[in-house]
Amino acid sequence: MLEARALTKRYPGVTALSEVDFSVGPGEVVALIGENGAGKSTLIKLFGGLVQPDGGEILWNGKPIQITSVGVATQLGIGVIHQELSNLTNLDVAGNVFLGREPRKFGFLVDRKLMIQHTEEYLRPLGLDLSPVTPLSELSIARQQMVEIAKALSLEAKILIMDEPTSSLTSGETAHLLKLIDDLRSRGVGIVYVSHRLDEVKAIADRAIAFRDGKNAGALSKEELTTENMVRLMVGRDIQRQSSRGFVATESRLVVNGLRTKRFPNREISFTVGKGEIVGIAGLVGAGRSEVAQAIFGVDERVGGTVELDGVALPSGSPKAAIERGLYLAPEDRRKEGLITAMTIRENVTLPGMARYSTIGLIRSKKESEISVSMRERLRIKAPSIESQVSGLSGGNQQKVVLAKWLSLNPKVLVFDEPTRGIDIGARAEIYDLMRSLAAEGVAILMISSDMEEVLGLSDRVVVMHEGSLSGVLPRDAATEEAIMHLAVGSA
After folding, report:
1. pLDDT band at residue 395, thresholds of 50, 70 and 90?
2. CA distance 438 to 378
3. What gap in Å lies between CA 77 and CA 272, rounded to an integer?
4. 412 contacts 308 by C-beta, under 8 angstroms
């Protein structure tokens, strides 16, 4: 139904795609796999009409076609769920699902009643207990992602392209989505499924096509879909699985005592993170984990409780004070909260510590460039230069830029909120190695993650939350998936 032949796309200084081939038929689920920067998102943008190719051709039902805009793609029947959310938080759920396609009565008045009714119909298969009139600004990233999926379903597309659709979803939400994909396949919808969660690919895909460095790296049939085969095509090298160090801290660096957040003003949470320790925070989406991270860093004011770093209390609601003391946050939504995407790598890396690179108000460009080049090399950020705009980087490389700006300031405490969301297996391994090396240097690391393997593989202790409260703290030898889930659902 949809096919790419020798498709090529160039940007200044880089070839994003080089003569790639790809196809998906009706009622078929084709996984597109590859590391960040392999060209997956570029192909999706070409299919979705966001950018135009520099060579090759796109075919629709065997006939060459030019997809010159998003409107053309939509008219053909191509729906795209992008990795980076494109919704409007000032509208409600129904307004986002039918944005630009609002049902009308009398030819000009928006029919809100019909729009709400239809929105409920598209939310139901996702198992989403959510009112269509809920403002999107009140929803977590995970729920906003589900709204994006509902929006794509409302297009009743013939081809549905999903770019990391489960990156922020719980296991239950993911199960609903995979069941829905199975239903769509049975109705003849072709699915292009992009995910770094290889277990999902094995479960849902009929076949997989791998990209590496903007080129075809190989294809796998259903029978050949093993983790080892996929990693070999994607990365070209073996990836070592993480295992915990079994580290026991002897000195507390971060002390959180009786912390109460705006979302859960009547629930307290207390825990410590030791010098050189990695503490994971686990729990279901909506348990209040991100709110705790934001309150610790000062993005949100605390309703109550204290946060101490090396015995010194941090004031509530002051990221500036946290930064000055050496406590930094890598947020879940890196594009909106962790980066200024219109700026370059250099500008993002040096922005938080600008005082270090200036004299009497004048920026010392040489010093600024030196630290940016050093961070780019240390984190292996894939970009033509430090003057590359961050908006053009892959998700994994954007996350590395977030880390680079804090590493340049010599952190004492690093808070990671979903550190590997939407990041490929190779970049993920690099970030894990970085976290371990930082801990070995004495940095205290607090890590929020929905990836159970990540929590179990990296954490020296696991703090489990349920509905804004601490439901338990598990030492490494007692931290199992069953024990964490038992506490996460509040059944302890």
Report:
1. confident
2. 13
3. 52
4. no
Q: Please return the burial class of 219, using the count of CB atoms within 10 Å of its CB with bins 0-12, 13-18 and 19+.
A: middle
Q: Alpha helix locations (H) across 205-245?
A: 227-235
pLDDT for res 238: 52
Q: How far is the CA of 285 from the CAs of 120, 256, 465, 480, in angstroms?
A: 21, 21, 10, 19
Structure tokens at 27: 């009622």
pTM: 0.60
Per-residue model confidence (pLDDT) at position 139: 82
The candidate with the shortest Cα–Cα distance to 252, out of 319, 307, 294, is: 307
Q: Which residue is associated with the tokens 């992009």?
A: 194
Instruction: Check if the beta carbon of residue 41 is closer than 8 Å to that of residue 196.
Output: no
For 311, counting Cβ atoms within 10 Å of its Cβ (0-12 exposed, 13-18 middle, 19+ buried), the class is exposed
Q: Which domains does the chain have, with CATH numbers?
A: 2-235 (3.40.50.300), 252-326+411-488 (3.40.50.300)
Residue 185's region, left for phi above 0, alpha for psi from -120 to 50, else beta, is: alpha
- 342 bridge partner residues: none
Distance CA 4, CA 194 (A): 16
Arithmetic mean of pLDDT, 313-338: 91
Instruction: Phi first, then psi: give them for residue 137, nearest 5 degrees.
Output: -60, -20
Amino acid symbol at 118 = H
d(CA 139, CA 125): 19
The alpha carbon of residue 58 and the mean position of all alpha carbons in its chain are separated, in whole angstroms, by 29
Name 377's Cβ contacts closer than 8 Å, sequence gap at least 6. none
Task: Give the whole-number percent of the chain exceeding pLDDT 90.
Answer: 43
Q: Give the pLDDT mean for 88-106.
A: 86
Question: Largest Cα–Cα distance in the chain?
Answer: 71
Looking at this protein, which amino acid is placed at residue 443? V
Q: How many CB atoms lie within 10 A of CB 413?
A: 23
- Contacts by 57-62, CB closer than 8 A, 24 or more apart: 57/4, 57/5, 57/6, 57/7, 58/2, 58/3, 58/4, 58/5, 58/7, 59/2, 59/3, 59/4, 59/5, 60/1, 60/2, 60/3, 61/1, 62/3
Looking at the predicted structure, is the pLDDT value of residue 418 above 80?
Answer: yes
Q: Is the dihedral of CA 326, 314, 309, 468 positive or negative?
A: negative
Average pLDDT of the segment spanning 197-226? 91
pLDDT range class, residue 323, cuts 50, 70, 90: very high
